[in-house]
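ARCHIVE CARD
Drawer: 12
Card no.: 0347
Subject: one protein chain, sequence and derived structure
Cross-reference: see card 0346
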Amino acid sequence: MVGMEAGGLTDILTRALIVGASRFLKQSFVIENKGGGAGAVAAGVVATAKPDGYTLAALQNSSIIDAPLMNKVPFKPLRSFTPITAFAWSEHSALLVSKDAPWKSFEEFVRYARQNPGKIKYSVSGLGTGMHVAMEVVAYKDQIKWVVIPYKGGPGARTALMGKHVDACSYGSDWPIYVESGDLHVLATHGRSRSPHSPNVPSLNELGYNFISSNFHSIIGPAGLPPQVVAKLEAAFVAGMETPDFKTARERLYLSPVYYDSKEYDRSLRDRWVAMEKLYKEVGIIKEAATQP
């Protein structure tokens, strides 16, 4: 199951990954898109699946950790799953506006939002995603009130901006395609430093917000997967990462290479829970975690 709608970044990348994985396992995958809840809907289904390795989910780490911190979900983020692998890194997500928007810089946009409480509407691919948290961090620091409009994936959020149903979109790492085409304008990015695709655009980290969106694309299964099944799946997805299909898709989506095996990814998720719970409380997104880990 892919935890975002069809045609989005997670969907395209996962379909490229399973080309090589299918060859390795000598059997095909059937993909079902199950968007909603920033991936939490798909995670909830996998959490109750039989632990035999035949039901898996492609999700971002924010789907497993960030969304449950913010919203009550029917699974335990650190107990309901067997992490299998993280296979790509989405660092440079960004804040976008229409090409003819009145704001030409991030500073202008923030100034307008501060002076017009509740007037700005922005779209995201789900509550609890890194793109959503980025906007909430800015709102907290600059005392802004704006309205978030969540969608089941990036395509819906982007289309809402292009159709001018919203004023801005906090969007995933494949935004350069739409900026280079002239359809959209980028105001700020969410990485550790400036994006190489728009070196004149500042990052939130650079602007003093002390925030970095670091989303890993990953595969998980239900808790209790036997070690031999995990090892076989790890090997299959490593094979998938080595194919030209996958590498081409990753590059076209402006993603960075990364690989975590099951134990490394499990450790990463546990560390993220601690870090994000602390951040969410500091900026006032939550008082306590909505879901216990």
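Annotation on reverse: The mean pLDDT is 93. The first strand starts at residue 57 and ends at 60.
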